[in-house]
Amino acid sequence: MTTRRNLLKSSLSLAAAPVGMSVAIEVAHAEDMPKWNNETDVLVLGYGNAGSNAAIAAADAGAKVLILEKTPAGGGNVSVSSGGFVVPTNKEDYYKFQKALYELSRSEWDKDLLDLFCEESLHLGDYVSSLAPEGKIGVYGHAGYQNLPGADCVNKMSMRNVPGAKGGDRLFGIFDRAVKARNIPVLVNCPARRLVRRGNEVLGVEAVYEGNPYFVKANKAVVICTGGFQSNPELMARYIYGNPMAYLGSPAHTGDGLLMAQSMGCDLWHMNSVSAPLGVRVPGVKAGIAMVTRQPAFIWVDQDGKRFVNEKKLDYHCSWMAVNNFDAINHRYPRIPCFMIMDSSYLKAGPLISNGGSGWAINREGYKWSKDNQKEIDSGVIIKADTIEELAKKLGIAYYDKDIIGQIAEQSGLSPEYIKENAELSPKKGLFAYAFAGRDITGKSIEDIVYEAQRKVILELAGKEPCVIVGRNADYILKDRDDVLNVFIHGNMPEKTQRIMVLYNVEENEAVKMIADTDKRRMTNYNFYTEQKWGMAGNYTLALNSSVLGYDMCQKIIMDCTKI
Predict the structure, then answer these.
(1) How far apart are CA 483 and CA 187, in angstroms?
(2) For the chain, how many structural domains are there in total?
(3) Which of 44, 371, 523, 557 could be bridged to 534 by S-S, CB 3.0 to 4.6 A?
(4) Does residue 509 share a domain with residue 435?
(5) 245 in the same domain as 107
(6) Residue 106: CB partners within 8 Å, gap ≥ 6?
(7) How far apart are CA 58 and CA 270, in angstroms?
(8) Are 282 and 289 in contact (CB under 8 A)?
(9) Distance (Å, rounded) from C-alpha 521 to C-alpha 215?
(10) Where is 82: in which H helix or E strand?
(11) For residue 33, what are the β-bridge partners?
(12) Which structural domain range is residue 366 located in?
């Protein structure tokens, strides 16, 4: 009889079951035993950092060892990393640091296991040196999370003066040579598929080798070192909520070993995290490309065009935390994808992303970022536009410059064309005539109506979201807010004249006249409605001379001030 309670139990059981195909073969009787193709003491699944060192440890303990590797070469994510490893100066501080990392990521952790990890980490440098006595170990960096307790004890180490390429290839090369020196066989292109079990006892593994089932008997142990699961959409949906980020690790990391362990009744933990620094998707490349860039001269914005991070101070290793933001109201990831906005001078300085960076796409798939960024522009990875407005349209981001004119027009009842030409400019008359301009029965002139509408729109925009408002007396209108940066940018007459000549295609005398007329009208409007003097430094947080500083320096100063 099916009751509501039994049905609920069944549903819960199904929800906890492994994803995909069966990952275990049950051997109940002797006649069910497979025909073994190979036999060993310790069978290691996966030939990366963990797998190679597990094999070394087992062989040094006297066991016969065999390694099965899914890919053609092995190496896993360690081979495409920077090749570093952490050696702390003392256990106590390192424990504090690691504990803080777990708490920061809201990950499960075990006190005894963490204690053992911190203890053994003290000896990691000596261990790596013992595998490559010809090498020299040295410090190349420190903790990436300097604000966490215990960070001062963390040293990032690397091995030098040993054969191999660089980075992760050099580090894995040390482990690979140590495996070969012990005559440990490695079968590549041999993915493990299912455990062979009898009750709670693991007898061996069914793999696929040269296109055929391949059964390996393990007399003492099967050690699972198959990496993570970021390339398994079903597991990502289950544990990472389907986060659509561009992951940097091996496409072979599909959680095979995790599912095998789960089939034996093992609990899974620490499943809320995958290797995922901020990456870029490139057509035809399976893995994401790590954002290893030059000194920031760009801003990051989300799909609404909002800046959301201090680009200069963001730690590379936790960059994904800045973009992994779910909008629970609109049910979307507004920062996936996000956009890096820069000017042409940044692109002309060299490749946007370094080809010396880590990650599977560059180090294994062989993608080379073009020196002039043109290949990425042509493929649509970099979107180029002549104006911010055009760029916003190409990215599908709302652009508010004209929108604010429309809102003022709607509030005032006047045409957008009139607002565009006159909203922050007085009519062509002096302050005295402006004050006594024609007014309706309420005592308001057209200019008064426009100003009130403009004021209302600016206050609404500032209260709604972070924004940039150019002119329109916004410094005065928002003077009572504590979160406003008021900037007055001015320039010397020769530079201003030249700019207007180019912008409006006019002769020098006409450009000078246009500047004088516009400045006078803007000053009259500002002085009348704010009862302050236009251009007074005291009205602004910053007063910058673009002719002296240059546009790039003005931009840098403004952006630095937004971070204070």
Answers:
(1) 62
(2) 4
(3) 523
(4) yes
(5) no
(6) 272
(7) 26
(8) yes
(9) 87
(10) none
(11) none
(12) 297-395
CA distance 88 to 123: 9
What whole-number distance in Å separates Cα of residue 410 and Cα of residue 431?
Answer: 27
- What is each CA distance from 255 to 142, 227, 289, 355, 518, in whole angstroms? 31, 7, 21, 29, 66
**Token duo for residue 148:** 């966490």
Dihedral class, residue 242 (left if φ above 0, else alpha if ψ from -120 to 50, else beta):
left
pLDDT tens-digit profile, the chain (564 residues): 334 333 333 233 333 344 444 567 787 666 778 999 999 999 999 999 999 999 999 999 999 999 999 999 889 888 888 888 999 999 999 999 999 988 887 777 889 999 999 999 999 999 999 999 998 999 988 888 888 999 999 999 998 888 777 778 889 999 999 999 999 999 999 999 999 999 889 999 999 999 999 999 999 999 999 998 988 888 888 887 656 677 778 889 999 999 999 988 888 887 877 765 677 888 888 888 877 676 667 888 888 777 888 777 776 666 777 787 888 887 888 888 888 888 888 888 888 887 766 778 888 888 899 999 999 999 989 988 887 777 777 877 655 555 677 677 777 676 767 666 665 555 555 444 444 444 455 556 677 777 777 788 778 777 776 677 777 777 777 777 777 888 888 888 888 888 788 777 888 888 888 888 877 877 777 777 777 777 776 777 888 888 888 877 887 787 777 666
Token look-up 């935390």 returns 321
The pLDDT score that the predictor gives to residue 398 is 58
Nearest to 279 by CA among 258, 262, 296, 293: 293
What is the separation, in whole angstroms, between the first and last Cα of the chain? Answer: 67
- Looking at the structure, tell me whether residues 552 and 429 fall in a common domain: yes
Is the domain of 135 the same as that of 272?
A: no
Q: Structure tokens of 418?
A: 């009139």
DSSP β-ladder status, 201-209 and 192-198? antiparallel
SS3 letters across 469-486: CCCCCHHHHCCCCCCCCC
Measured between alpha carbons, how far is 374 from 279 in angstroms, rounded to an integer?
Answer: 19
- 288 domain-assigned: no
User: How many residues does this entry show for the chain?
Assistant: 564
Listed in order, strand segments (DSSP E) in 236-356 are 279-280, 289-290, 299-301, 339-341
**Contact criterion met (CB below 8 Å) for 462 and 481:** yes
Contacts of 260 (CB under 8 A, 6+ apart): 23, 24, 45, 192, 194, 195, 224
Contact 497, 506 (CB under 8 A): no
Q: Which helix (H) or strand (E) holds 6?
A: helix 4-15
CA distances from 371 to 278, 295, 375 (A): 21, 17, 9
Residue 211 lies in a domain: yes
Beta bridge partners of 158: 138
Cite the beta strand spans of 11-96 per DSSP E. 24-26, 38-45, 65-68, 85-88
**Spatial separation of the C-alpha atoms in residues 546 and 526, rounded to whole Å:** 22
- Are 301 and 250 within one domain? no
Residues pairing with 332 in the sheet:
327
User: Any idea what the CATH number is for the domain that residue 450 is in?
Assistant: 3.40.50.300
How does 124-150 read in b/e, with b if 16+ C-beta sit within 10 Å? ebeebbebbeebebeeeeebebeebeb
Given the structure tokens 């390192």, which residue do they identify? Answer: 94
In a domain, 285, yes or no: no
